Amino acid sequence: MTASAAMAREALAQRLIVAERFGVEVPTFQGEGPSCGHPAVFIRLSRCNLTCRACDTKETWDWTQFDPRKVSTRQSVADLVAWVLSSPVELVVITGGEPLLQQRDLIPLVRRLLEEGRRIEFETNGTVMPAHALLVDGVRFNVSPKLVSFGMDEAKSIAPAVLRAFADSGQAVFKFVASAVADLDRIAELADQHALAPVWVMPEGTTAEAVTSTTRELADAVAARHWHLTTRLHVLAFADPKGR
After folding, report:
1. What is the DSSP string of 194-220?
2. Does 223 fall in a domain?
3. Handedness of CA 53, 139, 101, 84 (dihedral sign)
4. Which of 56, 133, 175, 211 is the most buried (most CB within 10 A)?
5. Residue range 171-221, pLDDT digits in tens
6. 134 lies in a domain?
7. What is the domain extent for residue 29?
8. Domains in the chain: how many in total?
């Protein structure tokens, strides 16, 4: 075995801490952002560096409610690649938690999937500097800085240097969760301060009724700012959106 082949084999043996994976056995869509409505498969990684009150995936980090031994597993890059490739779907969404906490071991996964013609989207909170090896064609970052209204201290959730790196990369969009029109002023401040563009606004809500109500509250004000508005399609489309 050549040295390069041995390195490739070793990379595929690396393991990631996974909360869940879905979209192969039961097909689904990307529910948010620029690819909303596109068929997608999802790898949700466990662990997060934030503790947002409004988080809807607390099983990835809140060990006061969940046992990490029961809600996460270690899966090899090779197994994850094989699982993704068992589906014809092009778009692979890597989410969390905060997936970039594990980016060293994500690099071989992303490289292998790109080689197979897949397209990658990361859902990230924008506090972890992306590795240069992930800033490549075929990869996009949906960066979602968390506001005070989402239940997070912005001293921890807003990382100016990281946001600037994403903005400068040309491979990121900035998706803010908003619960009321008042949040849009804060989003505008952050966009101006850190040159964040394009801006997407997503209504907060974990039920179809809440998403619809908040969308209607926000829509005119978002349109007036010439920003993008995204829904949460999985919440609207599926009776039980968990794992969809």
Report:
1. HT--SEEEEE--SSHHHHHHHHHHHHH
2. no
3. positive
4. 175
5. 999 999 999 999 999 999 999 999 999 999 999 999 999 999 999 999 999
6. yes
7. 3-175
8. 1
Q: Quick check: 41 and 22 in contact, CB under 8 A?
A: yes
DSSP helix/strand/coil, 56? coil
**For residue 130, which of 145, 140, 115 has the smallest C-alpha distance?**
140
Contacts by 122-125 with C-beta closer than 8 Å and gap 24+? 122/93, 122/94, 122/95, 123/32, 123/93, 123/94, 123/95, 123/96, 123/99, 124/96, 124/98, 124/99, 124/100, 125/48, 125/49, 125/50, 125/98, 125/157
Write the pLDDT tens digit of every residue in 50-99.
Answer: 999 999 999 999 999 999 999 999 999 999 999 999 999 999 999 999 99
Q: Specify the pairing of strand 91-95 against strand 73-76.
A: unpaired
For 162-181, give the DSSP string: HHHHHHHHT-EEEEEEESST
In sequence order, which ranges of the chain are alpha helices (DSSP H)? 3-13, 68-71, 77-85, 103-115, 154-157, 160-169, 182-194, 208-224, 233-237
